[in-house]
Prior knowledge:
LytTR_DNA-bd_dom, CATH 2.40.50.1020, DNA binding, phosphorelay response regulator activity, 3-stranded antiparallel beta sheet, single chain, LytTR family transcriptional regulator
Amino acid sequence: MKLTVEERPDLEEAEVTIRCPAIDRRVRAIMAAANAVDCRLLGTDGTGTFIVEPSEVLYAETVDGRTFLYGRDRVLESPLRLYELEEALAGTEFVRASKSLIVNFDHVRALRPYLNARLELVLSNGESVIASRQYAPAIKQKIGL
């Protein structure tokens, strides 16, 4: 892979151009990293509103019509609906795991088969979440199975 950086003070914002023979895993990773740089999420926990980096979120889940962001040591409520959150995180390592769950694949440490063709995803904090059978094939494809 060839990398070229050109510093141009006359530009108002950074511009990234990727030239490739085909969009592969490496190109997707570069695109995800570029998209994640400018993405910030908001969450509240009763004491205030916090700005959260997507990399800090292990997964997001909708429970009783409310969306929550789960981090290593805290849970924040998001003002966004899950589909809005998924759109905001498009191009990052977040992947839909069920109707009510999106998971940050950077925090997935293991996949295990689960009942009825579902998958158990073991996260970096030791917690497990279940991917429905509808979304399991896309998750398997993401890791090359």
